[in-house]
Design a protein that fits this description.
Order of helices and strands: EEEHEEHEHEEEHEHEHEH
Strand content: 15-25%
Largest sheet: 6 strands, mixed
Mean pLDDT: 84
Radius of gyration: 23 Å
Number of strands: 12
Distance between the termini: 39 Å
CATH topology of the largest domain: Rossmann fold
CATH architecture of the largest domain: 3-Layer(aba) Sandwich
Low-confidence stretches: 1-5, 185-200
Number of domains: 2
Shape: elongated
Helix content: 25-40%
Length: about 300
């Protein structure tokens, strides 16, 4: 890809172009990758529809391969030379698309249907590449088509790469528990509720079986505390690696055989957004039953739950 600044030697009013637009702050806003596909949330579907709709208003442009990814958008576009084309017609089309989809994003934020990442949905510029040969065009089409399938390739190892405790728990009928982070932070003067949306931590899921979760959000941590209090078996999936010193209660539960901690990452790796999604997918895929607390509308957990296919 070229520099995001436009190349003065390229005629952007005529030709084949490969463009990439990145979400502001590299946030995951449009869905999640599962089963080698991008499972779009409502905003992601609107972004894809908006790109398709743009060509009905601009007959000088031809829509080719495109894909909406969790935090970016790839597309191939053909612009035909016409007297009415702008001198930098590619930018004219892209800015119109970004402006319209940002409007849709703001409407979704007001309706509490997606996370609020600030005033802009997209990074200020975009990447473009002039396509000059048929072979290059076919290679880029394949890159766009295969982008979801390559998303996890070589990114993360198996979730069980690092483990401590009783691996036999994986063979039992597991109960997944997932919950989103609350929309408002816990303040020092708060005396009970985590937020209006989240509510207080929940007790462990009512159905029997070991609980499996990343135990990341406040509600999930409340479930972990309940499991420890009543000695209910649990599997703690840790996206950022198993710490060298586990909390004493968790370490004791693992040593006694009624708990297991897992991670695809080495100790001290730290939490990564996509690795966290990878681990939540593992939690849902391993479970015989799924329970949940507060789920943020339009967030990654909401998309995972909506598109999850039971094993």
């Amino acid at each position: 890809m070229s520099n995001p600044l436009r190349n003065s030697n390229i005629n952007y009013s005529d030709g084949w172009f490969f463009v990439t637009m990145q979400v502001a702050q590299n946030k995951t806003m449009f869905g999640v990758i599962a089963d080698d596909k991008c499972k779009l949330n409502a905003l992601g579907e609107k972004v894809g529809s908006s790109w398709e709709g743009m060509f009905a208003r601009h007959p000088e442009a031809y829509r080719d391969a495109s894909v909406v990814m969790p935090n970016h958008f790839h597309a191939v576009i053909r612009i035909h030379r016409r007297p009415t084309n702008k001198p930098n017609h590619l930018s004219y089309l892209i800015q119109g698309f970004k402006s319209f989809t940002t409007h849709l994003y703001h409407a979704a934020v007001r309706a509490e249907q997606c996370p609020d990442i600030g005033t802009s949905l997209w990074m200020s510029s975009y990447y473009d590449n002039l396509i000059t040969t048929r072979r290059e065009l076919e290679n880029i089409r394949a890159y766009v088509r295969d982008n979801p399938a390559r998303w996890d390739d070589d990114r993360f190892g198996p979730v069980t790469t690092y483990h401590y405790g009783n691996l036999e728990l994986l063979h039992e009928a597991l109960v997944a528990y997932v919950a989103s982070e609350p929309d408002t932070e816990v303040r020092p003067h708060d005396t009970g509720r985590l937020s209006r949306e989240a509510g207080p931590p929940c007790p462990a899921p009512p159905c029997p079986g070991p609980v499996i979760s990343t135990f990341t959000s406040p509600q999930e941590r409340g479930v972990l505390a309940r499991c420890l209090a009543v000695r209910r078996p649990f599997i703690h999936v840790m996206p950022g690696g198993i710490p060298e010193r586990l909390p004493p209660a968790v370490a004791r539960a693992c040593a006694e055989g009624w708990a297991l901690v897992l991670s695809p990452s080495a100790p001290g790796t730290g939490v990564n957004k996509q690795r966290a999604i990878w681990c939540n997918r593992y939690v849902l895929d391993r479970a015989a039953r799924i329970t949940h607390g507060y789920i943020r509308p339009g967030g990654t957990l909401e998309t995972l739950l909506r598109t999850h296919t039971p094993p």
